[in-house]
Amino acid sequence: xxxxxxxxxxxxxxxxxxxxxxxxxxxxxxxxxxxxxxxxxxxxxxxxxxxxxxxxxxxxxxxxxxxxxxxxxxxxxxxxxxxxxxxxxxxxxxxxxxxxxxxxxxxxxxxxxxxxxxxxxxxxxxxxxxxxxxxxxxxxxxxxxxxxxxxxxxxxxxxxxxxxxxxxxxxxxxxxxxxxx
Length: 181
What we know:
3 helices, 9% helix
């Protein structure tokens, strides 16, 4: 699971067009891997930007302000860390098939927000139908690039914002989004 926020577009004049207040909750284990961005101004665009994680104000704001179906509602997701007053930006949980060993990595904290900007050439106008795009998230990048991460050597859990395990996983996540089309 992970949270996306900080959405913006780069227009044909290289201006940043924020898509304020829009968030996405991705929960691959539930099959929830789609989201919708709304109120995109008409125009020509060259890039899309977003973050895994939230800005500090949103991260530490009151999660109960959101409707139950909102991506940041603690009713809708399990990524709000109520005991620290913020959200888990990425939760990687599962079992190592070979050893049947459980792993749990909860990555949070402002220093672990990851920003992405990807080429995305498209235009919008009043006569356009809904546009769709596919962003590819390659989970294998979390464990292999730029450093190899192994459960045997690096451990099975982290609930820290600064542990060596968290730092290594975050560094490896810098290129998890491999394609935007």
